Amino acid sequence: MKGEAVAEALLTAARRVLPFLPLKVTQRFGRMLGSAVYATRPDMRAIVCHNLSCLLEQPSTAPMVQRAARGAFQTLLLNYVDMIHTSRFSPTEMFKATEAVGFERLVEAQAGGRGVVIATAHLGSIDQGGQALVVRGARCAVLTEHITPEWLFRFFVQERQRFGGKVITLDEAVVPHIQQALREGYAVGVACDWDLQGTGIPVTVPPLRHALRIPLGISLLALRQQCPIVPIWAERLSDGRTRVSVKEPFIPEATVSARSAIRQSSERIAYQLIAELRRRPHQWVLFHRVWEDDP
Questions:
Q1: What is the DSSP letter of 231?
Q2: Model pTM above 0.85
Q3: CA distances from residue 144 to 55, 107, 141, 157, 173 in whole angstroms, order as listed
Q4: Helix, strand, or coil here: 269?
Q5: What is the pLDDT of residues 102-114, one digit of tens each?
Q6: Residues spanned by the domain of 39
Q7: 213, 200 in Cβ contact below 8 A?
């Protein structure tokens, strides 16, 4: 309990200070924190290096993998620092701090109040990517794990709802809540790089040897609700801003069977995902082993 109290006090202090510091200072601070965590958490480092080793087809000890792993830790801590630094931003300020390439595709997909499943990943500045869509007028919902301690969960919920986004808590009753949000016309973001339920579709994208499981729920929700899937990827830019790239929407079609439609949809998502991850592996902030065992 003492450790939790200290952590909560540190968060409170950071929320009082970081919003008033220049961006260059907070960015330097975030990178320093990331490097410190990378150096002091060998357990987390081993997981990240394994994931990157499979992605880059290099040994975990390779300099390329180690550099990308350090960058992933820095990206993660920069994301947390940014969430605090921008906590006093107005919608206009958040608009200027982000850009949304292809945003008109999401607008068209949501036309007429239609729900949308966003296929996204733990890549870049995830939360700012979501805020970039919301401040531009999209109705978005984000799935949020009910973490402990409770005060930290409340902080994440508060920040993700700040500009009008909807938060759906990941629990046993999450599917009906997602379906209701889709019926209400929300774009619901679902991470496609972590198969939390263990029921996903394994896809091997050449030249990789390992398969990555794409969560079944992405395609299944789109099929059941007859709504489009829109891949959207976030990227941290060198100037500290965030770019989201909205890709072409598509609707899984069960022309032969639902199983074949889910397979085709999962493969389409996987090919885009792997391309994005290999382009900026240092921004992949997933700290769980996700690849299938060695082939």
A1: E
A2: yes
A3: 26, 24, 10, 8, 13
A4: helix
A5: 999 999 999 999 9
A6: 1-88
A7: yes
